[in-house]
TrEMBL record:
This is phosphoenolpyruvate mutase. Gene3D superfamilies: HUPs (3.40.50.620), Phosphoenolpyruvate-binding domains (3.20.20.60). The keyword Chloroplast does not apply. Pfam families: CTP_transf_like, PEP_mutase. SUPFAM superfamilies: Nucleotidylyl transferase, Phosphoenolpyruvate/pyruvate domain. The keyword Isomerase applies. InterPro entries: Cyt_trans-like (IPR004821), ICL/PEPM (IPR039556), PEnolPyrv_PMutase_core (IPR012698), Pyrv/PenolPyrv_kinase-like_dom (IPR015813), Pyrv_kinase-like_dom_sf (IPR040442), Rossmann-like_a/b/a_fold (IPR014729). Residues 4-137 form the Cytidyltransferase-like domain. It comes from the Bacteria. Keywords: Isomerase, Pyruvate. Its EC number is 5.4.2.9.
Length: 439
């Protein structure tokens, strides 16, 4: 079980398990006590097929350990039960019959095959309890919203539970709703975006302003609050250089207070210039010492242990090479950075992969963030296999919306009416269904 929201269907299965255990004891009174063992799905196992539960594994363990029907709780690290079955060799395996079809049918067949191979037990499948569903309960709960602290802590939990995390740029509540609701199926597995990226580039561009840190923090937080009102996923904030050390400390507390999970700051100084311009425009990299001091100041300012400060390294952007990038990565980590973002403007991922290989040889734990805007032919899965944890698609939503809106505007002028461009537009009915509470 995930056992995030305990409902009558769970209790029914546990009662059946308890009765089977009692019957075994009655039939063989001199044998050891028959125990009911509950396999509790870890965050990692749950994240492999759906969203993280509200409660952490430790919190869920505390709940189910106190259920009177349960004798022992063990971690279930994967969707496959085979490992635990081989370890326990149970007399019975009990699971609701709702897995006979759909995404979990192959898991069921694996249980049957394993029990048959071991010759040790029987699969019992109680009828699914009608009128109750963990999935529906979760959807209803998420429709209500999510608390600030719960959202803030999600990113750390996701990093520990799955890889890669796919993060999509959002610059408005509408774009965030699209990001939250987008998903595909690959080999029976649901693939979705795990959170949002608040980009300084797209936030300023959507306001018709240059990407030079011209939009103040308060204005950007207004947009983020609108996003948070209608979504439940974590958000990473692009803070450019972070500003002066004294100012950055206040920014960290402001970001943390509204429920933002992480801030990324880059090791450059002076007027902000977009990194993808590289050395084509004057750009100055901060000293290792000064940037490390900024990281330390931010870490001292934060209140919770869940908030993350991620250091963005511009060495490859500025053609300073792998040695400089790695030196800075370890220095920033030692200064307290919770993660490292490595960036490149090359059209292929070779220098990113070289960095990941070298970094992971010495550090297997620190999260690494990659933004494949230029080297966009490599998949998130391939980057994850190379050692990246978080893949940010940093500006595609705004860039796509510009082209679509421009095409529609020109089409209306060309035809002097809107009939010809209706195929380019979202239907009114779809809009009404997308926005919660409209209908």
């Amino acid at each position: 079980m995930a056992a995030d929201l305990i409902h009558p269907g769970h209790i029914n299965i546990l009662k059946i398990a308890r009765k089977l255990a009692n019957d075994l004891e009655s039939s063989a009174p001199n044998s050891p006590k028959a125990k009911v063992v509950l396999g509790l799905l870890t965050d990692k196992a749950i994240a492999s097929y759906k969203r993280l539960p509200y409660m952490t594994y430790e919190q869920r363990l505390e709940v189910v350990s106190h259920l009177k029907e349960v004798d022992v709780v063990i971690p279930q690290d994967t969707l496959s039960y085979e490992g635990n079955i081989r370890a326990l060799k149970p007399r019975y395996v009990i699971h609701g019959d709702d897995w006979k079809s759909g995404a979990q049918s192959y898991v069921r067949q694996n249980v049957i095959d394993t029990l048959q191979e071991l010759g040790c037990g029987e699969l019992i499948e109680p009828h699914y309890t009608q009128g109750i569903s963990s999935t529906q309960l979760n959807e209803n709960a998420r429709a209500i919203g999510i608390t600030t602290n719960a959202r803030l802590s999600l990113l750390r939990r996701l990093i520990n539970a799955k890889s890669p995390l796919r993060i999509l740029e959002t610059h408005s509540a509408l774009s965030a709703l699209i990001a939250q609701n987008s998903h595909v199926k690959h080999n029976g597995q649901k693939i979705e975006f795990d959170g949002f990226w608040s980009s300084s580039l797209t936030d300023s561009t959507s306001r018709g302003k240059p990407d030079i840190e011209a939009v103040e923090l308060t204005s950007r937080l207004n947009t983020i609050n609108e996003i948070f009102e209608v979504t439940t996923k974590p958000l990473i904030y692009d803070a450019d250089t972070g500003g002066k050390i004294e100012h950055f400390a206040f920014s960290v507390r402001s970001l943390e207070r509204v429920g933002i999970s992480a801030v990324i700051i880059e090791d450059k100084t002076g007027l902000k210039k977009n990194s993808l311009l590289g050395n084509d425009v004057p750009q100055t990299q901060d000293s290792v010492k000064d940037f490390s001091d900024k990281i330390r100041a931010g870490k001292l300012a934060q209140i919770t242990s869940d908030f993350m400060i991620i250091a963005r390294i511009e060495s490859l952007i500025l053609n300073k090479g792998q040695k400089d990038a790695l030196h800075r990565a370890f220095a920033y980590r030692d200064a307290g950075a919770d993660g490292i973002m490595i960036h490149s403007r090359h059209k292929n991922a070779s220098e990113i992969l070289t960095f990941l290989d070298a970094f992971r040889k010495l550090d297997s734990n620190t999260p690494v963030v990659v933004v494949p805007t230029s080297f966009n032919d490599i998949t998130a899965r391939d980057l994850s296999d190379a050692g990246a944890n978080i893949i940010i698609y940093a500006n595609q939503m705004l860039r796509a919306s510009f082209i679509a809106m421009q095409r529609v505007a020109q089409g209306i002028l060309e035809h002097d009416r809107s009939k010809e461009i209706e195929g380019e537009c979202m239907s009114i009915d779809s809009i009404l269904k997308l926005i919660p509470g409209t209908i």
